[in-house]
Specification:
493 residues, alpha/beta, Rossmann fold, 7-stranded parallel beta sheet, 6-stranded parallel beta sheet, disordered C terminus
């Protein structure tokens, strides 16, 4: 397939294979493990369909923590310059300026390809559902709808699932994107393929599908009788049905991928976090302005306070902890649900480590979580490492402090690393990355930074990726600039 004129960034072989299989198919699922480039493949697929004059509109849906990546990074990076396009994103809270952009985007006669990006959560709201139905009716005949992280519609009872199945019927082309199409059980596939087309699985209802592929026993508890799923059956039959409509690849199968893959998840601040962030930021800048000498420890202390707020807490001067509702933990749990295998989670704050541990234990069981930080006794540290490194041990999550768990240990059973709250030290970051990227690692390793846009988070991660030692940097004349970041949302376009 000659695609050079519609591909902007050089594809890997497996990406070309995925594009070749999907090409101009009406229905398709890119079941590609995180880090293998499924976003790029979708964008190349959109370019292909546009070049073939089959579509003039694309609606891309993704979770809140992901959809900004499409607007700010993925589409600008990968969409061919030969594809004239207009790009806009959904805002739950509108203003006159945004309404004007929206009207221009949808109502102005244009020959350009329109690409609209929404967060999938919007389809639980009347406004989001109304918008989706309108777009399906107006553009669906020559339009493509894609759901990134399609397991967000695996619950067949959820409002967003029902809404998107209905909306999807109005689109000529449909795409699913996920690295883990099955997160809990094979039954997760039902809603995803019901969205693509009910004819693929060919069942009249979810319950017909359930009876065909699940082993169900009747149980009694006192006077109450209920049904319990005890296993699954006819899975080869299920796989044969979906195989013509999917491309499946794992990182370990991609010999041409880089050894380290970096990605980002964006976190939105809650209202309480915004208020406290602005308050502490103003106090910090005032403190530095009145100081006769500004030192690196002074700046870093203030940066730490801002970073704590982003994680959902703040340590007061009296030693108390103020807690905030945060979307950061929710996004971490989304990642844990999306990826398979063992996961290494780093945070510099004890509060985060304990909070993450408690939540994961509640959801997955105590035996699945190990912690490694300053408070962890030496014998427990040994036990946790041994359990995590045993592929047959149920311990799936290793939660640690990068300055403690980032040196001198091997954790190469993990090929996904999440930085919940980064350390400022460049050496610590590099050392912590290498805990699982070392001799004995047989897979590519994906590193995920959780970032709250337009905050200290953004500066820290940018500095670390550019190999800048933050402790040395803040000694410069622009020390105050590390704190002068507006926590309000940036205009993405």
């Amino acid at each position: 397939m000659n695609v050079n004129h519609i591909i902007k960034t050089k594809p890997y072989k497996h990406q070309l294979d995925a594009l070749d299989k999907a090409k101009d198919m009406g229905l398709f699922g890119f079941f590609m493990e995180m880090g293998t480039g499924k976003s790029k493949v979708l964008i190349d697929n959109i370019a292909w369909l546009r070049n073939e004059k089959k579509i003039n509109f694309a609606l891309i849906l993704a979770p809140k923590g992901v959809y900004r990546n499409w607007v700010q990074k993925e589409i600008p990076t990968h969409l061919s310059d030969s594809i004239e396009h207009k790009l806009l994103y959904w805002q739950s809270n509108t203003n006159k300026m945004y309404e004007k952009k929206l009207n221009e985007f949808f109502k102005t006669t244009t020959t350009a390809m329109r690409i609209f990006v929404m967060n999938v959560e919007a389809f639980s709201s009347p406004r989001g559902i109304k918008a989706g139905n309108w777009m399906a009716k107006k553009f669906g005949g020559r339009g493509l709808i894609a759901i990134d992280e399609s397991t967000t519609i695996k619950n067949h009872k959820a409002k967003r699932t029902k809404s998107l199945i209905k909306i999807g019927r109005g689109f000529a082309y449909k795409r699913l994107l996920t690295g883990s199409p099955v997160t809990k059980s094979p039954l997760d596939l039902w809603s995803q393929f019901e969205f693509l087309d009910p004819g693929i699985l060919n069942f009249k209802s979810y319950y017909a599908f359930l009876n065909r592929h699940a082993n169900i026993l009747k149980r009694s508890l006192g006077s109450h009788t209920f049904q319990q799923i005890v296993g699954y059956k006819r899975l080869d039959e299920l796989l044969n049905k979906i195989d013509p409509y999917i491309y499946r690849v794992l990182k370990k199968d991609c010999i041409d991928l880089p050894d380290k893959i970096y990605t980002t998840r964006f976190i939105e601040l809650t209202d309480d976090q915004k208020k406290m962030y602005s308050k502490i930021q103003k106090e910090a800048i005032l403190l530095l302005d009145v100081a006769s000498t500004v030192t690196a420890p002074m700046v870093i202390t203030q940066m730490l306070r801002l970073q704590q707020i982003l994680s959902g807490h703040l340590k007061t001067d009296e030693g108390n902890t103020i807690e905030f509702k945060t979307n950061r933990l929710t996004e971490l749990l989304n990642i844990c649900d999306e990826v398979s295998g063992k996961i290494l989670i780093y945070s510099r704050f004890r509060y985060d480590i304990v909070t993450i541990k408690n939540k994961l234990e509640t959801l997955y069981g105590k035996e699945t979580v190990g912690t490694y930080y300053g408070d962890t006794p030496q014998d427990e540290r040994v036990r946790v490492i041994e359990a995590f490194e045993d592929p047959d041990n149920p311990m799936r999550f290793f939660v640690g402090n990068p300055s403690t768990a980032g040196y001198g240990i091997t954790l190469n059973q993990a090929n996904t690393v999440v930085y919940y709250a980064n350390d400022f030290n460049l050496e610590t970051r590099m050392q912590s990355e290498d805990r699982c990227h070392r001799i004995g690692q047989t897979n590519k390793v994906t590193y995920i930074d959780l970032i709250t846009e337009s905050t200290i988070d953004e500066k820290i991660v940018k500095a670390l990726k550019n190999k800048i030692d933050i402790g040395a940097k803040v000694l410069g004349e622009e020390a105050r600039q590390w704190l002068k970041i507006d926590p309000k949302q940036k205009t993405m376009l």
